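Hi R.,

Here's the chain you asked about this morning:
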Amino acid sequence: MKALTTLLFFTLGYFVNAQDKIKLKTGEVVKCRVYKIANGKVAYKKMHNLKGPDLFYAKGDIEYIKYENGKVLFMSGNKMKKPAVKKAVKKK
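And here is the predicted structure, written out as tokens:
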């Protein structure tokens, strides 16, 4: 029974944190579900109202979007850029 309770606790913690996060340039973090990025806008829905209306932010107002899978998409003005990835250097 104790194992079942522990499993339930960790599963619940995962679903509570399963959301996208938009970090605005003002420092505010919005927990949401991002649906579309196009035409200089990011369309999203608030986590507590996924059946509600689409809401929008201009790309220029957003510092980055962190998706629920952990990937981060940085915004730079109206251009999107992916985080720099350093390649491993093989030693001879």
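One quick note: The longest strand covers residues 29-38.

Cheers,
M.
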